[in-house]
Amino acid sequence: MKLTRKVTALAMASMMVFSMAACGGDSAPETTTAAASTEAKADAATDAATEAAKETAAQAEASGGAGGNIGVCIYKFDDAFMTTYRNALQEILEGKGYTVTFMDGKNDQAEQNNQINNFIAQGVDALIINPVMTSAADQIIATVKDADIPTVLINREPTADQMSAYEKLVYVGCDARQSGTMQGELILDTANKGDINGDGKVSYIMIQGDPENVDAQYRTEFSVKALTDAGMEVEELDLQRGDWDRNKGQEIAQNDLAKFGNDIEVIFCNNDDMAIGALQAIQAAGRKVNEDIYLVGVDALDAALNEVVNGNMTGTVLNDANGQAQGAVDAMEALLGGKTYAAGEQSIYVDYVKVTPENAADFQ
Ligand code: GAL
């Protein structure tokens, strides 16, 4: 994805202030100009000019230039899908002239709490937060409410009840139930509806994301529900958490293929990165996707789209990073424009799309 980089000198300066604060600096942002140090010696005219320049710089800094200062907290940078999402956010926000600073929560809620507090101390105009833990949502929401900062939560959805505590807060994401259902449908669309050995049941392993995350819970539940709703019998051979991680997906699939062998007809992965890992194990075990085993993921990462086209994955589900990033920025701008959200209306959803070899090229 091509990034548009529009970083002005002013933006650079305020980004430096942000990073200093993020590294543990506890002093308030300070702008020192060369003119200020010579102020005492300057004559009246120069004084006036200096004051005017300082005032303009202060105003510009306060508003972050044309677009304002935006702080973005990502649960961890080292996540394939959230990297795509982060790049999309950066392109859109910078393209609109915002000064944007991204922080890596490193999968540590305490670290992310500090980052949120630092952003608030720096006086950002709005926050976009991908929480590390949805169970921390109450605390995050209380913090941003207390600071009166318009906030968009992304990717990890709190409950409607939690969000109702603050009217300048909105969640932009997807309804994870939909992606699970689509994964089940991808299996139902195969020639034998997933029952490769014809024993009357679909035997599967489930490689789950981080189970604290509602995406993992719903995808696990609704992928299988789609099969049972269609009248299929199912047998769960194994369910293990792979934490959205490729290596863990590979390890789990490798162990299960050794243990259950040809009994495994379907590998459901809550995301593509784990599915790519599982594919490595499938190939190492001499199995062939779409012939003696089915494999589905979610996200439509570029690597997964290639595997769908090549017949090495049965299908995936588009998790629309661009659509969600655009939705998040739209919601943020609505909040900045003074819009408030009533309880029960604080979740904005972008649709998932089923991806098969027929339409995969549309998303590449
Ligand atoms: C999901 C996505 C996963 C992972 C997770 C992080 O929506 O499918 O790949 O990025 O979000 O919360």
Topology:
Blueprint: H1 9-22, H2 34-37, H3 44-63, E1 69-74, H4 80-95, E2 99-104, H5 109-122, E3 126-129, H6 137-147, E4 151-154, H7 160-163, E5 169-173, H8 176-188, E6 201-208, H9 214-229, E7 233-241, H10 246-260, E8 266-269, H11 272-284, E9 294-296, H12 302-309, E10 316-318, H13 321-336, E11 347-349, E12 353-355
Parallel strand pairs: 1-2, 1-3, 3-4, 4-5, 5-11, 6-7, 6-8, 8-9
Antiparallel strand pairs: 10-12
Helix pairs in contact: 1-5, 4-13, 5-6, 8-9, 10-11
Beta-D-galactopyranose (GAL) binds next to helix 4.
Question: How would you describe the overall organization of this protein?
Answer:
The chain has 364 residues and is α/β, with parallel strands linked by helices. The chain has three domains: 56 residues; 136 residues, Rossmann fold (3-Layer(aba) Sandwich), CATH 3.40.50.2300; 142 residues, 3-Layer(aba) Sandwich (Rossmann fold), CATH 3.40.50. 45% of the residues lie in helices and 16% in strands. It is built from 13 helices and twelve strands. Helix 11 links the parallel strand 8 and strand 9. Helix 4 packs across helix 13, helix 8 runs parallel beside helix 9 and helix 10 packs across helix 11. The longest helix has 20 residues. The chain is elongated, with a radius of gyration of 24 Å. The N and C termini lie close together (11 Å). The N terminus is likely disordered. Beta-D-galactopyranose binds next to helix 4.
